[in-house]
Amino acid sequence: MESVGARAILHKNKSTGWFGTDYNMNLYRGCCHGCIYCDSRSDCYGIEDFDKVRCKANSLELLRYELRHKSHTGVIGTGSMSDPYNPFEEKALLTRHALELINDYGFGCVILSKSSLMTRDKDVFLAIKEHSPMMCKLTITAAEDSLSRIIEPNVSPSSERFNALAELSEAGIFTGITLMPVLPFIEDSEDNILKIVRRGAEAGVNFIYPAFGVTLRGIQREYFLRKADELFPGEGLSQRYFEAFGYSYECTSPNVDRLWKCFTAECERLGLLYKMQDIISASKRDYEQEQLSFF
Questions:
Q1: What's 71's DSSP letter?
Q2: I need a labelling partner for 28 at 20 to 30 A (CA). Which of 9, 155, 174, 269 fits?
Q3: Which domains does the chain have, with CATH numbers?
Q4: Largest Cα span, the chain
Q5: pTM of the prediction?
């Protein structure tokens, strides 16, 4: 695996980020999962040969230095631009060693992936959980493996991701599903959404956070529409997208109102969180109480 230069590993969020993160971290550049909808392929990010994974040079040394010199601890998010559990991670162990450093320096972590390899680091997640918020998220957008294997060809099928969530939840880790993107005309059916919610509940997740649509911009738009026509021949998906959305960045499902209604009703019935602030509050509640008790 090649490496690319890096000046820094931790990047401070201007405000508390999604899921309560204070910093963002990416140890890898590019991704080989092959998901047809990945926004990180967009030209605005300037990642050449996106489907080729490269590690960031001296990433662990940089991370150790940055953690040591932070005046305040916080929660570090990873997985926004590249999957921390790509196939190379199994031997490279960059993500695992980064988690060990995060634990050693008293930081929390929010980690996102599409790989069941995440369960390998359950012991480190539990160590972080002892002192700081620890959240594990897996993206699942297709309830059935038959569909997930088409749109996400090189990742763990959905069934393996549900099993991974069950293992992490059973261990007492705060877990959830990012149900995004939900691809219009491909995944935006009530049946698909309700199956994901119910299987998530069976796996013991704490939350499911959705986005009923997909974002498309330069390079990624052309890639996605080309792949959609290749993988679903005869459906005329590129034409349907153009007629429905034109060149809009946000392509919200025409079924969004109906999907949101059935999604929220089922989450409330099963006791699952789905609002961002509720998820953040629940993930940090025990640690805020400990601080108040201390003072």
A1: S
A2: 174
A3: 3-294 (3.20.20.70)
A4: 65
A5: 0.94
SS3 sequence of 95-151: HHHHHHHHHHCCCEEEEEECCHHHHHHHHHHHHHHCCCCEEEEEECCCCCHHHHHHH
Q: What is the mean pLDDT of residues 162-188?
A: 98
Q: How far apart are CA 196 and CA 156, in angstroms?
A: 15
First to last CA, the chain: 48
Mark 211-235 as b/e (b = at least 16 C-beta within 10 Å): bbbbbbeeebbebbbebbbeeeeee
Give the length of the chain.
295
Distance from CA of residue 59 to its chain's centroid?
21
Cβ-Cβ contacts under 8 Å for 262 (sequence gap 6 or more)? 190, 193, 194
pLDDT score of 46 more than 90: no
Q: Which two tokens stand for residue 255?
A: 């079924």
Contact (CB, 8 A) for 49 and 30: yes
- Measure the CA–CA gap between 283 and 173, rounded to whole angstroms: 10
Identify the residue whose tokens are 């013991």. 204
Q: Closest Cα to residue 94, out of 69, 111, 114?
A: 111
How far CA 82 is from CA of 42, 47, 161, in Å, comes to: 13, 11, 17
Percent above pLDDT 70 for the chain: 97
Helix axes 94-104, 122-129, angle to 10 degrees: 20
